[in-house]
């Protein structure tokens, strides 16, 4: 027996509900579609209100639906709407005849449908209402054709909205798994949370993600286990408990099934790393590790061009957008980023992701941390010791060059913006204030040497930060050059003590952007050249 669904237009009419302070009750005994033409009011269906005057409304009512119409406060207009009565049938092909039986199930849920194509539906309803007054056979056929067009539009939007709801339900399920991976999670539990039956949830999950629920949960847990292995000194048993496994043996088995190697081998295996920060890229390259994907500034790109070319690294400049798409295409073993990265959650879905604190860890701690991850602790120690030795030599030279009472100011110029730099935000701040131990102006000491990286000030306030030496970087990509020229030609600038003493030094922004030991070694040489000259 072959079964099809058949929908027919039983009737269409233009109906007016005049303004009324009291509710007008109407019960629809058959499937009815209401398309509001104009007016203002309130329509209640299943204890939910709709306000057609706010936007065009298309409302569906199943047989037996009670609808209340009333005027909206302050709007004495009433409502004019098209009312379409719809026949819904099962077409049954029996051996000797075809039978049409009324459908018992709901066609759509009561309430608003197809709001995105309201204007198209309204136009179709207008033409259908006109055709309904004609008596010719061709008009009847045309009327049914336009009705079919209308039902097709409604069905397409309804299906699209259902798919979006289903997609949202799966996204919520994945988010729950990512936040509760250390708990006992079951498919039936997530299906209930999504309002779906378990079998449909499984099919939908596979359709949306390309893998089944249990495999995705395993991937999340193993990714987190990889992060814990690299960033903590916890035992395998402790890590197993942290990621939702009963013991270290089960974790090891799942780990090897997912990655192809044991946890102990994973720790020492070289990894294909994606660096989301130019600072991390510089640190990796300084340690002799070439990332497969890296954000990078021109100075570092030139400094390490040999390593980058040999390693076939895919490099992106600091202003590249859609970076996550590049990461996905590269399929790295590990991702490095800061914990302030806006799309951190999306990165964690692609690969194990280590996010370091930009404010809680000093540049030296960040460098050592990265060295531990890539098993390059000895190389890191050698680089840091070499830099410290150079700094100590520089301090001795500066004793006779910079008086104890003299101060040093660091600023960066963007388009219409002056940034006063503290002792933590790069641009030579760590070197000058923390390592060379030169003194900042009093306002910099009080405002920016307690954790803040920088402060934006207007040109008029620059004299409050006056110093004996000024180091300047100009961010050309941010339109800094024209504003720097304007500043340096101003009376305020030319009356600053450092300017009058000819102690203003402009440093290359790219050279002073990063804070790895190799970059800082070169920054130190340039700073000493300025001071000693």
Automatic annotation (TrEMBL):
Gene3D superfamilies: Homeodomain-like, Jelly Rolls, Nitrogenase molybdenum iron protein domain. SMART domains: HTH_ARAC. Residues 171-269 form the HTH araC/xylS-type domain. InterPro entries: ABC_transptr_periplasmic_BD, Bact_iron-sidero_bind, Homeodomain-like_sf, HTH-like, HTH_AraC, HTH_AraC-typ_CS, RmlC-like_jellyroll. It comes from the Bacteria. Keywords: DNA-binding, Signal, Transcription, Transcription regulation, Transport. Residues 272-533 form the Fe/B12 periplasmic-binding domain. It is found in: Cell envelope. PANTHER family: IRON III DICITRATE-BINDING PERIPLASMIC PROTEIN, IRON(3+)-HYDROXAMATE-BINDING PROTEIN FHUD. Belongs to the bacterial solute-binding protein 8 family. This is ABC transporter substrate-binding protein. It comes from Paenibacillus mendelii.
